[in-house]
Amino acid sequence: MAAANKLSLLTHFAELKDPRINRTKRHLLLDIIGLAISAVIGGAESWVDIERFGKAKLEWLKTFLVLPHGIPSHDTIERLFRRLKPQEFQRCFANWVRALHEELGLKQVAIDGKTLRRSFDRAQEKSALHLVSAWCTENHLTLGQVAVDAKSNEITAIPELLRMLELSGAVVTIDAMGCQKEIAAQIVEGGAKYVLAVKDNQPNLHEDLQEHFIQVHEKDLADVEHSHYETNEVAHGRETTRSYYATPVPEMLRNSSAWRGLQSVGQVITTTVRGGEETCEIRFFINSFRSNARRFAKAVRGHWGIENSLHWVLDVSFDEDHSRIRKNHGAENFALLRRIALSLIKREATPGSIRGKRKMAGWNNELLLNVLVAGI
Prior knowledge:
With 376 residues, the protein is an alpha+beta fold. It folds into two domains: 139 residues, no CATH class; 207 residues, no CATH class. The protein contains 15 helices and nine strands. Helix 3 packs across helix 4, helix 3 packs across helix 13 and helix 4 packs across helix 6. 42% of the residues are buried.
């Protein structure tokens, strides 16, 4: 029972500060949180949907929620989430994730950004919300998110997101925007390893890695300490070969000591043949573990899980890009509700697509309970 309580999502939300005035409260904060999570799992995509879902499922919801005055109106639900501080909402969710970390272990954490394209408000001169999210690739679990004004501000959001997470023992993967010395140091100080993509935003580093691997290949890998791993895939009318190379940090790498924990560098050559035409892409990385191409390949491929298993699913199965929720903190908090719902759905073992499981959970109380039982 103690372990179950420790992993209960609503147990962690019990510490959430209620932004409402006491004399106006008719509905319990945890009731509204539990209702909203249940409704979003079951297909709700707006505040009105949450109210309608609650009224349709009232008797069933009363089996685990108090609901002393029934289901709150959509206006009441919206006002709460508009005023609820996202940082506090995030902190409570992050505490639940830490409990899961102890239970499951988090092997790889991918960090990347996504823009909610229709969350802009021209009348208020408010740009679309951009969220930087952390995703556990093995457990298909959202670990946290931080909102920024634009993609260019990811550099400031990533350290804030990292501070929210328990990273001990994990490998953290970030695209080139997060390839910063301070971020590398923060990951190492958190007890984790890193794999950071390198592009032109670090011009000296990128230039040195290009020159290093040119020399490696000119020698045909002879007399060069290295590790090599290759994969080949045939799908959707194309054949893709990925060659992964990892070497110790070369002496020619300028200012390498400024990168905390740096132990190896990596190159990925992706060759794609489709319709008789061949294309080639070359990418470079720095790593804080010893030269190991297979481990390096697993981290690079795993990073795409945040795009394929989180961002793409949120657009296709949750229709996130078309959401017009935008007032105050509403968009950011509803985005977290989606990510909580997705994490819980993915942890439930029933086979099927996310969209299909959402529909079935909305219709079938038993399935909805199975999805919720890991978190509520």
